[in-house]
Amino acid sequence: MLPLSVVVGNEVYREEVDITSEEFFEKVRTMENLPTSSQPTTGEIVTLFEQLAKDYDAVISVHLSSKISGTYQNVAGAASMVEGIKVFPYDSGISCMAQGYFALEGARMAKHGATVEEILTAFDEMQKTLRAYFMVDDLNHLVRGGRLSNGAAILGSMLKIKPILHFEDKEIVVFEKIRSSKKALKRIEGMLVEDSEKGYPIVATIIHANAEEEALKWKKHLEKTLPTVRFELSYFGPVIGTHLGEGALGMAWIEDRNRSHPY
């Protein structure tokens, strides 16, 4: 893992290395200005690949959407600077645990002897069943960070709506405008129900921004409603949390290849 960083005041923290999600949100509560995020430097990327080249002949690096971070392009550029290892950067088109599905499946396949080409082909297949929807308490975080259009934020504040957001063509856009959090969660649940009836096993991950109690409550409800779906719990880390704000809640799901493609 090569972490992105958050800049809080004059301090730079590497996500999951120098600061936890809980510590991050605690700091943000007392700040006047929102933190910013930054990607790894070219030097850090090259150093990591040079270390990997000692033991491996190829690396598949899985990145968050190239439309919300320049990390994917930076890695693609740095790959040509490293000798002795082939680098295959993969633009997941998404973030957080939805992005993590690709890393976990790639690791599982590699462990069982799959080739780079087989893993990348599997990634493209996975994209067909991948869904992710989330809602935030304050759209201004996304707008100020340049991750959502200004018009959507103005509309949200005027109408007191809880928009459901998702990734479309690798960008964060408003999927649907809902009047309350409860109705928004119900709408997301309804879409999961529809996909659960398509004939393939599903793994779903509830993702929260320092709102574990609410996330666990939703997970418990969903496990009773959809016993055939395998549910997991995850969280928005500091980098994505910078743009979503505390209290954000969402869910991602995908075909459960652990069950549909067992080794």
From TrEMBL:
Gene3D superfamilies named in the record? 3.30.1180.10, 3.40.50.10170
Per its database record, what is this protein's job? May bind long-chain fatty acids, such as palmitate, and may play a role in lipid transport or fatty acid metabolism.
Query: Which Pfam families does the UniProt record give?
Result: DegV
Keywords carried by this UniProt record? Lipid-binding
| Name recorded for this polypeptide | DegV family protein
Per its UniProt entry, which superkingdom is the organism in?
Bacteria
Give the originating organism: Carnobacterium divergens DSM 20623
| PROSITE patterns tied to this protein | DEGV
Coiled-coil segments: none
- Gene Ontology terms for molecular function: lipid binding
InterPro entries noted in UniProt: DegV, DegV_C, DegV_domain_contain
- Per its UniProt record, what PANTHER family does this chain match? DEGV DOMAIN-CONTAINING PROTEIN DR_1986-RELATED, FATTY ACID-BINDING PROTEIN TM_1468
